[in-house]
Amino acid sequence: MANRTDSITLDENRLEYEVKQMLIVFGQKETEETWESHENAIFKLTAIMRGSGHLTNMISALKRLKQGIQNAISTDRTRLSRAAMLLVEEIGRSLGSRFEALVDSFVPPVLKIATRANRVFVASSTQCLMVLVEHTGCTSIIPFLVESVKNPSKTLRIAAMDTLLKFMNTQSSDRYDNLVDLVEAAIRIGIVDSTPVVRETCRKIFEIYKEIFPYRVDGFVSPLNDITKKYLKITTRENSQPQRNGISSRPKTSKKPDAIDFPSAHNESTTHNLSRAKSQRSLREEYRKPRNPREVDMSFGSHDSYSQRDTSRTAQRPPQYDEASGISSNSGWLSSGKATQKAMRVPNSNPAPLSQNEVAAELFGALAKLSNPIRSGI
């Protein structure tokens, strides 16, 4: 069993023998009884990479073992998966730029581990990706990172943006001149991400992008919408006013609109409100005045009927009676003066005082009409 820090030096023939032995181990299904043998094979291969990574047949040997390595990366066992990702890190350190031939074999399964909920898996995946971009500088990793920014998994998006930032901080611009369009696509997608961490990392990538590709900044920024520009913290001259011959096109006003006074309209409105309140107050006082019970019209109609009846009483003078003869000057028929006045319900200029029984009868009659408005015609 090899230790994690061991280094094994082999020649090409010995490497071939070790590969055949590992293929036998990886050919066994991972179970409770076999997963430790898989872990030991991963440790031994890691030690071989440290001491014999320079061999010419190493890449071909790793391609033959890729299925067993991929299965170890994707396992649910934390120890075995972590050991497999440490192996991928060592492969990247040992091969350097030659890792380009193995990007398609090992980068996708490592990125997939970043979608898991377990923080140990996510941290191991992110660390492995960081090592790969730092020590290999393979530009073929960038398309996988940009595609991962579109993934629904928040942890994968964070890992992808952190890896892209690491790539731009450690590699020279001539390494990805042909892939600058993918970097711009990642910025457009990541800057409007729902996760603040992704947006913050994307702003850092944009700052590096402006330093490396200053001649592309205007063409990249101009088609962006206002929200994207806001998140990128791009300052624009939206608030500046167009000027002509040094004079602003917007007219200057000495007063704010709220400070404009309209005295005539204000006075008219005030006068109208005062007169209206005065008329309503006088009308209430008029109806509050006490009335002679004999002068009350027993029909108890609307306010209009009261006003009309009061007007009619004022316009028409009461007929004159001759108390001695009982003859009315308007009718010409004979009757006693008191009986005629009571029948016509016309107030006499000098009415005779009523007894208490007559006053009570008048009041009870009025109350009866109020209590039965349908029969009384109200």
Question: Would you kindly provide a written description of the structure presented here, covering whatever features stand out?
Answer:
By secondary structure, the protein is mainly α. It has a two-stranded antiparallel sheet. The protein has a two-stranded antiparallel sheet with strand order 3-4. Helix 1 packs antiparallel against helix 2, helix 3 runs parallel beside helix 5 and helix 7 packs parallel to helix 9.
Question: Which descriptors apply to this entry?
Answer:
two-stranded antiparallel ribbon, single chain, 378 residues, 61% helix, 2% strand, elongated, mainly alpha
Oligomeric grouping of the chains: single chain
Q: How many β-strand runs?
A: 4
Shape: elongated
Strand order of the largest sheet: 1-2
Arithmetic mean of pLDDT: 77
Brief overview, please?
With 378 residues, this protein is mainly α. It has helices at residues 12-26, 35-52, 58-74, 78-95, 103-113, 119-135, 141-149, 154-170, 180-190, 196-212, 217-221, 226-232, 263-288, 303-315, 337-344, 356-371, 373-376; strands at 243-244, 247-248, 321-322, 327-328.
